[in-house]
Write the structure tokens for this entry.
Amino acid sequence: MLKVTSLKTLLVCGTAFTALSCLSAGTAVAQTTPDAATPTGAALPKTGAGEVSRKADSADIIVTGSRIKQNPNDSALPLQIITTQELQRNSISSPEQLISLLTDNGSSADNLASNSDVVTSERRGNNGASFANLRGQGPAATLVLLNGRRVAAQGTTGAAVDVNQIPFAALERVEVLKDGASAIYGTDAVGGVINFITKKNYRGFGATAFSDVTEKGDAPIYRLSAIAGFGDLDNQGFNVMGTIGYSWVSPLEAHSRSFVNTFQHDRGLGVDTRGTPFATIVNLAGTSFATSSAFPLIPGTSVRATGGINVLRLPGQAGCNAVTDQDIYDTQVWGAPGNGLACSFDTGKNVYLQQQLNTLTYLGRAVKRFGAHEIALEITGSSADSVKRFSPVQITPNTSTQNYRYSRVAGVNDVAFDNLIGRINGVFPGLLNANSTFSYRWRCVECGEREITTTTTTFRAALNATGPLFGDWDYNAGISYADSISASTLGTGYYYQDALVAALNSGAVNPFLFPGQTQSAAGLAAIQSASAQGVVLYGGKYSVKQGDASASGSLFDIWGGSVKLAAGVDFRREEYKFNGDQRAVQRTIIAAPFDNGNALNGVHRDIKAVYAELQVPLFKGFEVSLAGRVDDYSGFGTTTNPKISLKYRPFKPILFRGSYNTAFRVPSFNQIFNPDTDSVYTGSDFADPRNCPNGTVNVAIGCPSLNNNVNIRSGGNLNLGPETATLFSAGAVFEPSRHFSATADFWSINRSNTIQVLPLQYLFANYSLFQDRFIRDSTGRLTVIDQTYANAGNTRTQGIDFTVRGSLDALGGTFAAGFDATLLLKKEEKVNASAATIQQLGVYSLASDLGLRWKHNAFVSYSNNDFSLALTQIFRSGYKNQVLPGVLAGTFDPSNDITDVSDYIYYNLSAAYTGIKGFKLTLGVRNLFNTDPPFAISYDSNNGSGSSWEPRVADPRGRSFTVQAEVKF
């Protein structure tokens, strides 16, 4: 153990800073690129078994963020180029894994693991989808391109591109522009641009097989792909190629990971639910406990059991934990002493941390050259099937739609009923009798885990023409159509309300099964007769039709060289529709998230834009670039966004660069058009802020939780305007030789009129500013909290990006090292102009992006003609932990309170063999030391989801072993 710990410590101290320490020692070390340690990595390495990509630095090319051809390694743009070599070094098998690797990507709920349980209404359509989130500005503020053009937003959300639709098997490289680019591309390019670029002009046949299996042998990931092409574009004037890939991602049960445990009293973590497999008796009008005051005092206290009675928690009984995944309701953690006779259920342990996702992707491309002109037709698409499985449904009574109760039915449940009454009366003599009735909250384990299956298909066709005009001027024109169609269907675990209520009232179903008892055949049959499996939940379609054209070339020469101009036009129509419950008779299904309030019967908008970019070399080594774009949106009007970039190279090893620009993001269709929908608040985090400062729950001073006593209103806002942003960056590149480079870039993003659903904690903490969102009846009782979309406040985010690359030829090969890091300097928000500034740097955030102060990826490697070996360290800094109500109110001090979430550090190891022509074998170990995610309180009381780890930061799979084999003929 000591040796392993010492080795880990050495790696922690060494790997992350290898490049910098080697610099100070005068030794140069490199990137994934073995023959050039360029700032962007644009000198592309070998991408597969015997396949060599064209060197991007051998000539000026169009790079992401500009319409003027230039050398990406001599550009004012902070551009990162990720090659397939880097993907293989980290055993990355999907676009989602690639996005999570980027240090510039935010830490928000944009991945599959963050969507594994009950979620808020704006995230319900995310099943099977993953999103990019550069600079932590949100998925809708990151522009995703495929070969330089837009793709359709995900079909059910209609807000952002699902990166899982990208044809991963066809990728040659990924360009990440770490700067705003609305002056070139228009809306969404606030946090930056990710451009997935596929292979072109491919000849021959290739195939790849990949597997990733955990040390525990569960949740394997497999991928098969093939590529074929013929025709030499340079010699024969044409090329036709195609790729196809299929991936299988198997589900990962939370039960299989010991770090998932929401019952950690000593750390201030507990579960806020009384819906348990052994039911908790609760009050309901017309029963023996008509109100909460009808319950007796908790034995040995003066506190009334207003939260109900779970018989297992009574003195002399087996205890809450006698049932799997049950334990006591933690009254101290939640500041709810009235729940002292209730049990709770670990919902976080009853989800799948990795969703099942099977994806087919394809790409076909044909290009024909006519002299110096080229016409290319490209077709891409995907079909993905995902299965989201999570905790069994909680059934909660009411006096209207779910009016059920447990009563004695002779010959059906009399024995079970009498047994239950006897145990209760043994503690509270005479409380109940054979004629008593009572309702209950029940977690219906016999109903099975809830399941939602989602099928998403995407399609994109693009016709593009390029060629010379005159002199060095050329043109680029194209038309494209893209769509994303998604539909979700209910699987197991969902039941018709009327049928299940009838089954519960029949007495055939026993919600009070003591340890060792099982549900009767009649009870199981009654439950299954109410199943709603197979009902279509909802569906949506998003489509984009686009036509664009641009021309670029030199205008004239001045002191520093040629003045170049690019100009273009862009026409686009975006269409979206969302179907809620399409059944003729909309029979209620318990807890089914139909989202009928979000139904839109087809909406669209038209966008017309013109843009220009001017590159002016004022004198040798100093260049100014000016760009601007005017967009006209139907329904919004016109917006103009300029950009100025500077580049100064006083001598070859040093380059200074900087930019200033504005950017914008238009609201999504849902954010504008969704009607209002009210849903019951089921959390325990907040009290009425009119009487209780910041809405802090503290029963002792008359501040009880609003649980089940108020509605939350969600919906769109027809008066929403676009978000706007100003961005600034300044940096330097040091490149003394082809063996070494280092960059540092400061960046700042100030956003205004941010489009958001104001988190409840913000509303309660700023009650004086948002009193209009707390709706009361004529008596002053709080009835509704308005959480509809709004243009609210502004955000400020600042940071510094670092990159180090270097290489050293020695011992018959090349030693290399690299370092990518992001230091977050500022992350703050004001919910409106009068509100106090909310600091989000290094602190827990329930609804928004986690502001991790430091992220880095560092690697060291050795390679020769036949073999390569690489070790990578992934580092994500910790942050201030969430604090639950009892601890926040100061009524409970956990004995092992963890106020700071630890840093998350893990290592990937890979080795590749290319000694046989046309064949490459890569072996890898992900999470080399089998590091668990650090303890973090991620529980969300309102949704009843989350647990003891943070899926926005950590990978739950643990150590896994990867194998990738590639062949090329």
